[in-house]
Structure formats: structure tokens, C-alpha cells
């Protein structure tokens, strides 16, 4: 039997870190849907195409090939056979993902790919509309959130550790703008599913969040 765990929430709430570790401990496949949208956005940016032109974006969807692979225990994402695992972690790629994700044709393609993955494997999937659209019948739905200040701080520390020169206030502004776009878009807006469990991670350590979710899995009979 295949199980599915849906983890939703705004940018910087810790979804990817938590989902990746939950999948590892349960022996499930981790599907980073945010990375898939970032890859889409990166394709257009790298090719000098406008992300504001919905008709143009939709016309190029078939040219974008996205694959997720586990290489030596690490999740890697490939765009048209090129490893872009590091490239998609920039603020530019993040903004690109937010823009293309509002387009119906792009979302339909992504949802189709994500649902196919869940049918074939036990998965932990994180994103913005997993519990509401992609996996409405998931065995467990979690909505992670945190204050804007805490999320900006996390993103700042993450990027400075990678040697990037970033400004905390700029990151905070980007997060606020992205929250607004994600929560107010007409197609699959970010919102907590009615049957999702809310976890505010503002004052929690990662291990606390992971253990809380693993206990919820145990309560639901979700196991390897």
C-alpha cells in the first residue's frame, strides 16, 4: 500500500527541510514541488523569456523537461537533463516560480506529474496546494507556518551560509509579496486544507517539528 503525506505552507516555514527528513525516516520518496516550479521559472529566465506573458509561458511548457533523482542519498532536480539543484535556490528563481505558478497551463502540467508520482510511490510532498489540489485524499495533511520575521531570518541565514550577499529587509519584503501573490492568486491559492493540522514553527526547532509529524504519522498508521 502506498501512503501520501501532504505538507503545505508559505515560503520559509521549513516545509522542504521537514518533508525531506520525514521522507528519509519513513523510507518514502520526497517530492519537492516548489523546486519543480522554480525549475520552470528558471527555464524562462535562462532563455530571456518574459514571465509576465502568460501566452508565451504556456506555449513553451512542452519544452520543459523536469526530473527528480536521488543521487548518493541527495535529492537532485534536472532541467532538460542539466543538474540545477543549486541554481533554483536563488531569490530570482523563487520569484520566477511564484510568477509561473499562477498560470493555469503550468499548474495543470505540474499537478499531473505530481499525482503520477504519488500513484507509483509512498511520498512526502510539500508545496502550496498539495493538500487542497494535488493530493486531496492524502493520508496526512500538515500546514506549516511561521512569522514573516522568522521566515526572513531563516532564508537570510541559509543564503549567507552559501556565500550569497543578501539583505534581510529585502528578503522580508520578497516574502511578504510572495505570500500575497500565493494567497490571492485565482488558481490554487495557498490556504490550509480543512482537514490539515496546523503547526506554527516560529519558536520550534526542526527536530521538534519532525517528531511531531512522525507522531501524527504513527497515529494514522502510516509506516514503511
Oligomer: single chain
Shape: globular
Poorly predicted runs are: none
Biggest sheet: strand arrangement: 2-6-1-7-8
What is the total number of structural domains?
1
CATH architecture: 3-Layer(aba) Sandwich
Give a short account of the largest sheet. Answer: 5 strands, parallel
What is the chain-wise order of helices and strands?
Answer: EHEHHEEEHHEHEHHEH
End-to-end CA span? 9 Å
Name the CATH superfamily classification.
Answer: P-loop containing nucleotide triphosphate hydrolases
Going by helix content, strand content and strand pairing, the class is alpha/beta
Question: Mean pLDDT across all residues, rounded?
Answer: 91
Question: How many β-strand runs?
Answer: 8
Named CATH topology: Rossmann fold
Q: Your description of this structure?
A:
This protein is an alpha/beta fold and 224 residues long. The protein has a single domain, classed as Rossmann fold. 49% of the residues lie in helices and 17% in strands. The protein has nine helices and eight strands. The protein has helices at 15-26, 33-46, 54-59, 91-100, 104-120, 130-134, 148-161, 168-184, 206-219, and strands at residues 4-8, 29-32, 66-71, 74-79, 82-83, 123-127, 140-145, 197-200. The strands form two sheets. The protein has a five-stranded parallel beta sheet with strand order 2-6-1-7-8, sandwiched between helices. It has a three-stranded antiparallel beta sheet with strand order 3-4-5, covered by helices on one side. Strand 3 (66-71) and strand 4 form a beta hairpin. Helix 1 (15-26) packs across helix 9 and helix 2 (33-46) crosses helix 4 (91-100). It is globular and about 50 Å long. The termini are close together.
Amino acid at each position: 500500500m502506498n501512503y501520501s503525506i501532504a505538507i503545505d505552507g508559505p515560503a520559509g516555514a521549513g516545509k522542504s527541510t521537514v518533508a525531506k527528513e520525514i521522507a528519509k525516516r519513513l523510507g518514502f520518496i520526497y517530492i519537492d514541488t516548489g523546486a519543480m516550479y522554480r525549475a520552470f521559472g528558471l527555464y524562462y529566465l535562462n532563455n530571456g523569456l518574459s514571465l509576465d506573458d502568460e501566452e508565451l509561458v504556456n506555449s513553451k511548457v512542452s519544452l520543459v523537461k523536469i526530473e527528480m533523482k536521488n543521487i548518493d542519498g541527495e535529492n537532485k532536480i534536472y532541467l532538460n537533463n542539466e543538474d540545477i539543484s543549486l541554481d533554483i535556490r536563488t531569490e530570482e528563481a523563487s520569484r520566477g516560480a511564484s510568477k509561473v505558478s499562477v498560470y493555469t497551463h503550468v499548474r495543470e502540467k505540474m499537478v499531473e506529474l505530481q499525482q503520477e508520482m504519488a500513484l507509483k510511490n509512498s511520498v512526502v510532498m510539500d508545496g502550496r496546494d498539495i493538500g487542497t489540489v494535488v493530493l486531496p485524499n492524502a493520508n496526512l495533511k500538515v500546514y506549516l507556518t511561521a512569522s514573516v520575521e522568522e521566515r526572513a531570518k531563516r532564508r537570510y541565514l541559509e543564503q549567507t551560509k552559501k556565500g550569497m550577499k543578501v539583505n534581510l529587509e529585502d528578503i522580508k519584503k520578497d516574502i511578504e509579496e510572495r505570500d500575497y501573490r500565493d494567497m490571492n492568486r485565482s488558481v490554487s491559492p495557498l490556504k490550509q486544507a480543512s482537514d490539515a493540522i496546523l503547526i506554527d514553527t516560529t519558536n520550534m526547532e526542526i527536530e521538534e517539528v519532525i517528531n511531531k509529524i512522525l507522531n501524527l504519522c504513527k497515529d494514522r498508521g502510516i509506516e514503511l
